[in-house]
Structure formats: structure tokens, C-alpha cells
# Entry
Amino acid sequence: MNKDIPYKIYLEETEVPKQWYNVRADMVNKPAPLINPGTLKPMTAEELSGVFCDELIAQELNTTDAYIPIPDEIQKFYKMYRPSPLVRAYCLEEKLGTPAKIYYKFEGNNTSGSHKLNSAIAQAYYAKKQGLKGVTTETGAGQWGTALSMACAYFGLDCLVYMVKVSYEQKPFRREVMRTYGATVTPSPSNTTEIGRKILERHPGTTGSLGCAISEAVEAELTRDGYKYVLGSVLNQVLLHQTIIGLETKTALEKYDIVPDIIIGCAGGGSNLGGLVSPFVGEKIKGNADYRIIAVEPASCPSFTRGKYAYDFCDTGKVCPLAKMYTLGSNFIPSPNHAGGLRYHGMSPVLSQLYHDGLIEATSVGQKEVFDAAVQFARVEGILPAPESSHAIRVAIDEALRCKETGEEKTIVFGLTGTGYFDMVAYGKYNDGEMEDYIPTDEELEKSFAELPQVNL
Amino acid sequence: MNKDIPYKIYLEETEVPKQWYNVRADMVNKPAPLINPGTLKPMTAEELSGVFCDELIAQELNTTDAYIPIPDEIQKFYKMYRPSPLVRAYCLEEKLGTPAKIYYKFEGNNTSGSHKLNSAIAQAYYAKKQGLKGVTTETGAGQWGTALSMACAYFGLDCLVYMVKVSYEQKPFRREVMRTYGATVTPSPSNTTEIGRKILERHPGTTGSLGCAISEAVEAELTRDGYKYVLGSVLNQVLLHQTIIGLETKTALEKYDIVPDIIIGCAGGGSNLGGLVSPFVGEKIKGNADYRIIAVEPASCPSFTRGKYAYDFCDTGKVCPLAKMYTLGSNFIPSPNHAGGLRYHGMSPVLSQLYHDGLIEATSVGQKEVFDAAVQFARVEGILPAPESSHAIRVAIDEALRCKETGEEKTIVFGLTGTGYFDMVAYGKYNDGEMEDYIPTDEELEKSFAELPQVNL
# Structure
């Protein structure tokens, strides 16, 4: 029998993980390496050092060490807002009338409003340790940019942020938060970089995408001394830092003898999903457990469910290395869906391999049904969720309703990655009945796939 | 010696208070009663029942029971976001280089963004229990309105909110949050009420005040069947509900043998301050302890530090009863300071009596120095504070810097009532160096005092 389970499970400081978990060490089929588009050979640490910090490159390339210690300084910062609570959604269950047990790991109780701070502080720490002046980055919904601004303010680093234009316009106050933390924020595509000017020429009036913003941030780094580029998702290093989410979740569940049946996370570049599910995937690989693990993506940007598993550029400007991943093509610019953090053409190579191997599954959902779920959740659980996170809520509710039909008492765990306080333009559209969805046609995708780089390894 | 104190002290569910604390029961000099402006006699329960719910009236008038049980349904809701953490501000202390130990009780980890939810859920519960259709209210910064919207959504009550116009304009997204929770929001003063029309005539172009909005909300209640009026501050019942803050704080401090020297809270109508300090004032009254308790108010609306202790109307429209309190006069309309939640002409009668009796002290601070403190705090503690809360941060920092000069290792506890995510217009002004302050002249105050009602009891 379960012990008496509180509404919110907070780990004690002594129970908090002191290491990140590197799922690649346990994967039978390792994710394909990043390759140099010129030589078509795997990127070496030396080649990567033009863009990234040394210790982060070591983490990026490490496929052998299952556990990597979290430096003390980062653990100290984590204490400011971690451990995050694992919450039993009693009120949502009651509202749905489901026999399912629903838990969510809530990462929104910090000013970045999301899980992004977990990796931002790590990346800022390594940049500072290497003696850098500052970092450049891109941001979609603005959560990563806010998180990085906070981390840079803490370590006294300069922070240059390229923000996807649609989010810059939909979330004007995000910019002020970043400025308050001392960052410089530029809407992307912009005229401040060569690649930005090219993209604007090719797609006049574009509302931008993560792919564009990455290209600009990388160019900004390459043209400045003492700066490196940092990224909030997709990369192995980012998933590694985010495993603090999954490790805390797993420890909390085990503390109360709770065994999940289904684990659900939203998926854009994959940082939240990878962080949440990696420790559980590890158990699955070792044959210790079996869970359904579901990635939820927007129907407007369906890289898992409608993409190709192929080598592609990580950015629109094709200045980054090639990664093997589920992709819609680096030229694909998704519609201005309100979940800015999920508007990325590709998917983490680690998650792509896990999906390819059948260790995780994926589904896509429309924007309106996502906001239906968001509002339903907000009214009973008292947290106004981010549109990105609400993708996971949608599927968690659907699974719980399925349990209601079958009478099964499944245990569902989902990642509630953040809050929607800066997404009120989107909620306003929903409240006014003006929420639209744009789903790419097969023809559009085929056109985008035709431009994938031809890589025969 | 102290036990090993975590960064954040979270009480166990079993340690969470099950009763509110009614400091009036222990006060030697009771706060003066509300009086009927017509008869000049204390308001009876019957007279109050035109405006308020029955059980809330009982709490309003109860000066004898020191503890009042928290109904199970409210305890259940509290579990969604309580207990709130008591945080040791290690990073702020380090940054300041002070020997002082700084703790803050953080009430911002819920979607209302503040402590207001503690009373909103209680008032909605009693309204529902009485079989009402809905409630009307006013909101300043929008935190109370958001909290009430959330509480009403939870219990299925209709919610009509009059929002002070300056906040309505400075915080457009607050309105969307309230709408998302199903509330109807009207900027005040408005043309939807008789009193609103009168105020607009007398003060064309006014940006409103809590006093105006209260009058409108009361009128809206009186002209609708099945509705009662609820209020987010000032009243005894509200302070009572908010004592959950102080009780949790006291329990957490005692758990780790921490004895505070100074307790600091911002003060507008007094709900946060009263909630935080009541249990400590109780100990002071009983002679069990001695702390400095400091109320911090904006220099633009200094009811404690420059007001008169007199009977006055709670609202600008003079439709409410008279309360004896420190007041700037019910006709005083404060400048559009960004701390909308502190723009009230009066102060809780309980706190007014305690201040009059020397049990608490008060100070006022300017807006620019408040934002200086807010940004300094945000950068090291990782939480972007509300402008209201930042008044307490300002004085906490000042006291800690005083300790740095004297070498004293004082323990400072302050209330961090909420987050500033909806205050980015204000932060933007600060970031742009455009923050202004308006301090009323003596002449202006004298003019306002001259209009105080002449009450000889």
C-alpha cells in the first residue's frame, strides 16, 4: 500500500539529486553524432570550440558516463527554486471523474516561468568558469531567454538574446523581464546580422522561428571576442542538465511507492521531455520497468509525427552542424502558433533515436483543444499553464478520460513545464473565440523535405 | 544552536495551521467598531447583511475568539498552493555583505501572484455556502481580482470586478487572467454605476483609486439579487484569513529555533501586513517576545506616517460604513504610483489601533528606491518581485545594511507578498530611467483632512 501521499511532494534537500543522468551511456543504439557539413565527419571537440564552451562540449560528446556530478555552485543556485513539487492533481481528477491518478511535475515556480533555468544556470556557470565576457542565444517563447538572463545576472555575464519575432510581439513584457535582468533583446530575424538580412529578403514579413534566431545568435557570437553561443534545447548537454527534472520526479515517486503507467511531456526541441523521461527510459532500456512515454507536439509543427529521420541543419541559416533527427526541414517555418517554445523544425537527436527505437511514442494536438485543456486545468488546479505545457495537459486529460471509459486506475505523470503569465495575448484570443490553427499540408512538407541536405554516410 | 536550516523551509502538511488567529481577542485596546454614518452607532450584523455574507459578518464582529477553525473545504484548496516557503535570502545577504540573517515568506507561487488567494477562497466559500449566485469586488493592482476570479471559478460563482483604471491600463494582461477564470472586469471609475458617473464628473480624467472602485462594487452588489460584496483588504475578516501567512511563518521559525528581531511588511489596506504580523503581535501583547514590526508604505500614499487617526469612510463614494483608522481622507486620490495595491487612503482598523498603541511602527519610501531594491533582489534571489512587495524589500535591505555598519547579526523577516510578472510596464519605466514619484504636499493633505466626516462619539 502507498504511504500517505501529500498533495505536493517536495523532496528534502538531502534527497535532491547531486548528479545529472546521461541516458546516452545506457542507450544500445547511440544517437548519431553531429557532423561537419563540409567534411561530413563527426564534429570534433576542437571544431565545436569555436561556438561552445569547453566543458559543455565535453558533455555534448560524452556517451559513456551515465552520471555527471552537478558542480556545487550550480547546486547552490538550484536550491533557490528547486526541488520543484510533484503535485497530485486531485481536483482535476475529481472534475474529470476519472479513476486515473494524475501527477504533474511543476517547473513554473521561478521567474523564468519554466524548466529552462535548469540548463541556463549550468551553461552560464561553465561560461563564467572559462573566463568569458558573455553569451549569445536565441529564444522562442522567451522562457529560455529569461532564464539565461537570470543566470547571467547571477554570474555577472553579458547576455545577448535573439527573440523569435512572433513571441517578441506577442509577449512584450518578456523583453522587459530580460532587460530587468540586464540582457539585450533583439527581435529575429533582424537586420543586425548577415543571416538575418538574408532571411528577411527570402521571407519578407516572416514572424521568425527558432531556426532563424539560432543562426543569428551564432553569427553574433562568431563576430564577437569573449563570447560563446548557448542553446536552450535540442543539444545533448541541455537534455543532460534537464534530467534534474526526471531524477527528482523518479525519487519522489519511489519515495511513495508510486509506479507510473504513462509519462507525458510536450516536445519542441526536446529539453523538457528529454529531461523528464530520460531516467525512466534508462529503466526501460535496462528492462527494469515498462511505461508508455508520450511526446506531445503541436499539429502546426509535427516533427516527430510527420517529419523525416534524417541529417539536417539545426538552424535556418545553415551555419550550425548537421544533426540526425526527426525534422520538418530547416527551411520549414511553422505558423505563428502561440506555443512559441514548440516552434522548432527538428527534435533532439537523443529523443529522435529513442523514438526511432520505439522507446517513446508521439502524438500531435491542435491549438484550440490545447487551450481548452489549459483553461480546464487552470480553473481546478489554480495554475495558469504555459501554452507549451498545455500540450501535455491535453493528452494527460485525454488519457484520464480513456481510463474513465475503461475503469482503469492508471497512474499518469506529466511535465508541467511552466506558467502562462506572459501568454495572455494567446489566452485573450482564446477567450474571444479567435484561436486559429494552421496545419501544414503534405505538399508543404514534401517541398520542405526536398531541400534536406543530401548526406550519405 | 540552530538546527541545519534549509534554503527554503516548507512545513509538512501535518504542521500546517488548521485555525486562523484573531488578534483582536488578545488586544487590550480593541479596534474601534465600524459605525453607521446615519445613526453614528456601531454597525450591527443585520445592517451589514445587506452587503456581506453572514459568516463573514460574524468573523468581522468577533473580538473574543482567538482562534477560528479553517473549514475543511478551504484547507483543501490551501493545499494546492500552501504551505508557502519561508526562504533564507543567502544570496542577498552575501551580495550585501551583511551579518544580518534575512528571511522572506514568499506568497507569490500561485497564479494570483500574491497572498490575496488566502482570503479570496475563504470569502468565495462562505458566499457559496450561503447559496449566492455571485460576488462583486474592486481590485487595485489586480492581484485581489485575479485571486477572487480563481476562487469563484473553483466554486462556480459569478465574479464582477471593478479594477482601478490606472492598473487596468498598466496591466492589460491581468484582465485576461481574470477573464480566463470567467470574471467580468470593468475599469473604475466607470459609467456603469451612479457613483462612478459622479466621480468622473468631479474628477474628469482620474486614474481611479481603490476607494472609488469599492464604491462602484458595493453599488453593483446592492442593485443585483443573489450577490454580495467582498473586499480584499482593510476588513477584520480579511486580516483574519491572512493570518495563515503569519502562523506558517511563526511555526517555521520555531521549528528551527529562529527568533526574529525585525518583521517587515508592505502596507496598503493592511491585509498582508496584518496577516504576517498578527501572531507575532499576539506574543508581544502577552509579553512573550519583543520584535520591531515595521509597516512600509509608499511616500505617495502615506496613511500611517502622515495620516490622521479618525473615523472616515472606507470608500470615495461614502456608501460604506465609517471606520476608525489612519487615513488621508476618503477624497484623497493618490498619484498613479506603480504599486497599485498600496494606493488606498486608509488603513486596517486593527493595524491602526496597533500602530496607535505603539505595537508596530511605520515608515514610507519612494518609488525609485523601491525599484532599486526590487531589481537588486531579483538579480540575486531569482524572483522578480511585485512593486508592492518591494517596499518591504527596500526596508529589509536598509536594515541589513545598518547591521553591516554596526556588525549586529540581526534576524530580519519580511513578507514577499507576490511577483511582478504583470508589472512590466512599471519595470520598463524603471529600466528606461523614467520612474517618477509624487509626494503629496502638506497643503493637499490638509485640504483632504478638512473633508473628514465630523464624528463625535
